[in-house]
Structures are given as C-alpha cells and as structure tokens.
Amino acid sequence: MPGKTGERFVYQDDEIIEKPFNWAQLTRLFAYMKPYAKQMLPLVILMMILGTVTKLTVPFLTSMAIDKAIAPEVGPTSINMLYTITAIVLVLYIIQWLASTYRIKFTNIIGQRVIYDLRSDLFKHIQKLSFNFFDKRPAGSVLVRVTNDVNSLQELFTSGVVNLMIDCVQLVGIVVILLAINWKLGLAVILTVPIMFIISTKLRVRIRRAWQDVRMKNSRINSHLNESIQGIRVTQAYTQEQENIRFFDKMNFESKKSWDRASMLNQGFGPLIEITGGFGTLILFWFGAYLIQEGQLTIGLLVAFSSYVGNFWEPINRLGQMYNQLLVAMASSERIFEFIDEKPNIDDKPNAVPMPKIKGDIKLQDVVFEYEKGRQALKGINMDVIAGQTIALVGHTGSGKSTIINLLSRFYDISSGNITIDGYDIRDVQLETLRSQIGIVLQDTFIFSGTIRDNIRFGRLDATDEEIEAVSRAVNAHEFIEKLPGGYDTEVEERGNMLSMGQRQLLSFARALLADPRILILDEATASIDTETELKIQEALKVLLKGRTSFIVAHRLSTIRHADKIIVLDHGEIKEEGNHAELMQHQGTYYGLIEAQFRFV
Ligand SMILES: Nc1ncnc2c1ncn2[C@@H]1O[C@H](COP(=O)(O)OP(=O)(O)OP(=O)(O)O)[C@@H](O)[C@H]1O
C-alpha cells in the first residue's frame, strides 16, 4: 500500500512501529522458545539465581565489614575479619561474573535459534504464497518483514525475556531485604517508587518515540536506495538523476533532522531520569540519618541500604524499557504473523490426487477469470487442444494472453468454468505434480546469481553435466557458452546483465528442455534481436516444441505461422481461431493485427 501522494517508497503497513500489548500474540511468539526452553531454561534459571543471590549478598557483607570490623568501637582483631569478608566478596564476584557469562551465552543460544526458526518459517511460507499475494504487495514490503521485523525481535529473545525474569526476582529480593533490615526506612523508600516510575517512564516514552522516528526515516532511505539502484538504468535513460537526488536529499535531511531531535531529547532527559533516581536516595539518607541518631540503624546497614536502593533502580528502569521493547515486538510480530497466516489461496484440496504422467490434451470450458472483483480479464473462454499441438495466442496488449497461461499452471484459480488436462480438473490434482510437468519460459528470463551451469540445472536439479551440455547444444546455446571466459562455470551476476537478450533466451530454452515437460508455456520475448540470433532461436524453438503441447504468447511471425492453431484474443474473448492461412483468408482481426504489426518488416 503506497503512502500519501508525493511520498514514494513508503508503505503504510510497515510504518506502524508500536502496537498495544496483546497477550495471545505474545504467547504465540513465545511458543517459538518452547523447543529450547526445556533444554536451556533450567540452566539459565540456575545462573540467574546464582547471579542474583551473590549480587544481593555483597551489600550485606559490606555492612558487616563496616559495623563489625571497621567501626572505631570494635577491637584490633577485627582486621582478620576484614580479610575474611574481602575474600568472600572476591569469591562472590567471581561467581557472579561466571554466572552472568554463562547466562548470556545460554540466552544468546536460545535467542538465535528462535530468530532462525522464525525467519526460516517466514521464508518457507513466502515461497508457497500465490501470485495474487505478490500482486498486492511491493517486494520491498515483503523484504522488510523478513529482515527488519525479524531483527527487531532479536533483542527481545536474546536478552529481554531473561532480563525480565532477573529483574523481577531481584526486585522481590530487594524489597524483602529492605523491609527486613529496617521496615520503616524500607517502606519510605519503596513508597517513592511509583512516582519515580511514572516520571521516568513518561520521559522515556518521548525519547523512544524520537528514536523510532529516526529508524523509520532511515528505513525510508533504505527502500529508496534499493529502488533507485534497481532502477538506475531507467533513471539515467530518462535523465531523472536530478529529480532523484532532490528526492533523496529531502529524505536525507528529514533523517538528519529527526536524529538531531532525538539526540537532543536524549541529552536533556537522560540526566533528568538519573535525577529522579537521586530523589529516592535523598529520602534514604535524610530518614536514615535520623534512624541512626535514634539508635534504630547502624552506619553499615545504611550503606548496605543505599547499595540495595541503587540495585533497586536498575531493574525498575529496565522494566520500563522492557515494556517499550514489548510494544515494538507486538507491531513486528503482528506483521510477521500476518504473513505466516496468509493462506496460499492456491493449494491442494484435501483429497487431491497426484497428476499422472501427462499426455497433453487440454480443455478450457467457459473459463471466466477476474483478478479483481467485477473486472473480467477472461469472459468465457473455450478451447480444445490435442496433445502435441502448438497453440499461438495473439491479440492486443491487455487482451488476456498472459492471463490464460497463468491459469494453465494454476497460478490463479479461475472464477468459473473449468480447465482439464487429460480429463483431470487442474483443481483436483496435487499442485506439485501438475506444475512439475509444465515448463514455463517467460519473456524476461530470470537469471539467478551463480554459474551458467547452475542456471540451466535449475530446470532439473539432478541433471548431470553431460545432460546440461546436451540440452545446450540442442538449443544452440553451447556455442556462446563455450566462448564465455569460464565456459559453463562462468559466474553470472544476478539478473544476468552480462548476457545479451538472445543469449538469455537460449539459456532459458536449455533450462526448459532439461526439465523436459509435457506441456510447455512460452511467453515469447518481444525484444528484437539480430537475424543470426533470431534464426538460432527459431531452430531452438523447433527442438523445444517437438512432441509437447505448447502455448506460446507469440510475437514473431515465424512462430505464429508454424503454430497448429492460432487463437486471437480481444478484451478477454476469443475472436477468431484457425491456422495462419485460414485466418489470413478470413481477413478479420488477425489479418488486421498481422498487417499492422508486420507492415514494416
Ligand atoms: N496481476 C494483475 N492484477 C490485476 N489485473 C491484472 C493483472 N494482470 C493482468 N491484469 C489485467 O488483466 C487484463 C489482461 O491482461 P494480460 O496480462 O493477460 O494481457 P496480455 O494480453 O498478456 O497483454 P500483453 O500483451 O501486454 O502482455 C488486463 O486488463 C490487465 O490490466
């Protein structure tokens, strides 16, 4: 969903940074921890308890050192006691350090595994989603969910959850200790907590929002960058560089502005949050001094108390941050689950049968199809194709040619009517067994990064090198591949920019021939190529079409002429059908199309 006018590259769904707390969703998210919790959680809890107990023991030992060993009224023997206490404190610190190291190690393991599973689930699911899902969404938006949204959960799983537990345990421990040491002073300090908590949380919310704004502006820059690099050729061809630079500058400036604002808030509010903590300490010393004078508290205990109060603020502040983190996680997980819950609308029926080896008889009966409700792209198509025939689909742009080929592979389900292959309704068979027997060669051959060999092998992964070479020879691709610097092992960059259009087509023919499908669908490239390559392609096509039922969205006269049947489409309807000679004689739509298209050839 694009953003407001004038805000290119912005998709509103991805802009929502926080969502209210949702318990059901949190439970679902935490279910990802389950497989590892059993194994790791006891260890984490053990480390956590060890760490907390040692941490909370140190201030108590300090108070003992002051009251029993340092205070002027105790005797000289006390020096030994001081040594003993120091030694114990040292051991406690070592235990604490070890406990925290291992705790972090274990929680990282849990966190990384959860993120791995989540990302992998999401990716697997996206692979299965149907064409109409991608029709609705820009690729950038899908990308953001697999990267940014998953990443933003990372912190929650690696440290957030465990810190939450530690903080709760620590807080309870400290409250108990404070009340046990001196309940009056304890109560006075604890009562200040809600006020401090509210003030610091309020300030924190503003800082957080400001940083989120920075993140959002940066992610806009990223998507703009992505799109401008992908489209750099078009930009330069239309000399739109200045416009692009102006647009980028605006975004860049916005990002800088929001960063300035966030960092100012941070500088201003950061110390203020610290000061709110200081307020509690003030009460502590004021009331503590009074209790010491009254003989109700020792100096050592007051020092211990102040140390506990210091430890008290840390978890409270962190809990506030944790809550923020949860709200962000809510938004990200909602987006992730929205994708995971998206059912591929093209899926096997529960009683789907495997499609037997296809012969290639295809029938379309009263096929109606609409991409969007109320707009028919096909308005009642009837077609009867005998195995082995080559069918050329011709017609004006937008007449429905690509739509027919999309329906044959069941990339979309028809709105009414039916399509059968060898008498099987394509909706009743298992999708994989259907698609694996249909080969598709698209206009814009997609070349993946990897070698030429890898790209041909995409047609059938278990093919041997010999088979790859054989199909390449058969479609006239061997000759140019041989001449490449590394032959079949030449690395082609993503999208195959180093190959010419004609070479890319031959490569895609080789890929299709290797798959050896019974039904071949070919969206013929419209790009004009030199006569020599054109001839090679024509020869290759003959090899490719032999013995298969083929549908060609045809643009070349020679291809159309050789077809067994030409189907002329117009606004989603079949206008005429027959072979070239018949249709030319008829002097109807086809005749007009050919006249217009090839007048200058
Ligand atoms: N993914 C889509 N979502 C919505 N409408 C679509 C989609 N794809 C095609 N259409 C519409 O369906 C109609 C038929 O389009 P189709 O792509 O089948 O035409 P075509 O004959 O293959 O055209 P071309 O020769 O330009 O490729 C057009 O009106 C088009 O706007």
Question: Can you walk me through this structure?
Answer:
With 601 residues, this protein is α/β, with parallel strands linked by helices. The chain is built from 19 helices and twelve strands. Among the domains are: 21-170, Up-down Bundle (ABC transporter transmembrane region fold), CATH 1.20.1560; 389-400 and 432-598, P-loop containing nucleotide triphosphate hydrolases (Rossmann fold). The protein has helices at 23-30, 34-70, 78-128, 131-136, 139-181, 183-230, 232-237, 241-293, 299-341, 401-408, 431-435, 452-457, 465-474, 478-483, 501-515, 531-545, 557-562, 580-586, 589-598; strands spanning 362-372, 375-385, 390-395, 416-421, 424-425, 438-441, 450-451, 491-492, 519-523, 549-553, 565-570, 573-578. A six-stranded mixed beta sheet has the order 6-9-10-3-11-12, sandwiched between helices. A hairpin with a 2-residue loop joins strand 4 and strand 5 (424-425). Helix 5 (139-181) runs antiparallel to helix 6, helix 5 runs antiparallel to helix 9 and helix 15 (501-515) packs parallel to helix 16. The two termini are 43 Å apart. The structure holds adenosine-5'-triphosphate (ATP). GO terms for molecular function: ATP binding.
